[in-house]
Amino acid sequence: MSLAPTLSTDRLTLRPQRVEDFEPFAATLATDRSRWMGGPCSRREAWLWFAADSGSWSLNDTGGWTVERRTDGTVLGQVGVNKPDFFPEIELGWMLHDGFEGNGYALEAAQAARDWAFGPRDLSTLVSYIDPDNAASIRLAQRLGAVRDGAAERPDAGDLVYRHPHPQGDGGMEAYA
After folding, report:
1. Is the N or C terminus of the chain more exposed, i.e. has fewer CB atoms within 10 Å?
2. Residue 38 half-sphere exposure, CB side, CA atoms within 13 Å?
3. Please, which residues bridge with residue 81 across strands?
4. How far is CA 2 from the centre of its chain?
5. Neighbouring residues of 62: CB distance < 8 A, sequence distance ≥ 6
6. Would you give per-residue pLDDT tens digits along the chain (177 residues)?
7. Of 81, 93, 79, residue with least CA distance to 13
8. pTM of the model
9. Cα separation of 95 and 80, whole Å?
10. Residue 164, burial from CB neighbour count under 10 angstroms (0-12, 13-18, 19+)
């Protein structure tokens, strides 16, 4: 059985999810904040999502991490490198809980997850599926160096696909612009 690795940045710890992380996760998915991810979601739907992100580690060595601030242990949100059965490719995704935006936490957590994906996990490709109205996530994907790939398959026909450049070369990234 594979468990989520623990990753550290200057300000954050990305760690395996714990059952006590579910309450803030479910609270976020119950609000309008989750509209970019198919929400708002019921508590049941949130649990299925949370459990899938946790259990996915043992199935395919991908999943979700709880993002925690190192100074005080505050849970800020979640980041994941995931591939549910209905995703065409492995996705880098992020979600902050209310009140933690604007501090660079999502960027820092996503960079750590991306670096793990291309480093120890040894992925050759990584995408982010983003609702076209989610301007903040589009900006974050672009800050991460991702480029829109209009030809890529997607789990939802309305999503945009942003392809993250591999650190060992652009892998033809110019073809996606």
Report:
1. N
2. 10
3. 63, 92
4. 19
5. 56, 80, 81, 82, 83, 90, 121
6. 468 999 999 999 999 999 999 999 999 989 888 777 777 999 999 999 999 999 999 999 999 999 999 999 999 999 999 999 999 999 999 999 999 999 999 999 999 999 999 999 999 999 999 999 999 999 999 999 999 999 999 999 999 999 999 987 644 343 333
7. 79
8. 0.91
9. 9
10. buried
- For 49, the token pair is 């999502």
The CA distances from residue 129 to 76, 89, 168, in Å, are 21, 10, 22
Look up residue 83 and give its two tokens: 């591939």
Cβ(34)–Cβ(28) below 8 Å: yes
Question: Which position has the token pair 């820092």?
Answer: 108
Taking the C-alpha atoms of residue 176 and residue 164, their distance in angstroms, rounded to an integer, is 11
* Cα 98 from Cα 146, distance rounded (Å): 25
How far is it, in rounded angstroms, from Cα 147 to Cα 119?
A: 20
Give which of 107, 82, 95 is closest to 10, Cα–Cα.
Answer: 107
How far is 74 from 84, CA to CA, in rounded Å?
A: 28
Q: 135: closest CA among 123, 125, 143? A: 143
Instruction: List the beta strands (DSSP E) in 70-115.
Output: 75-82, 91-96
Strand pairing partners for 15?
A: 66
Q: What one-letter code names the amino acid at 25?
A: F
Structure tokens at 101: 């935006």
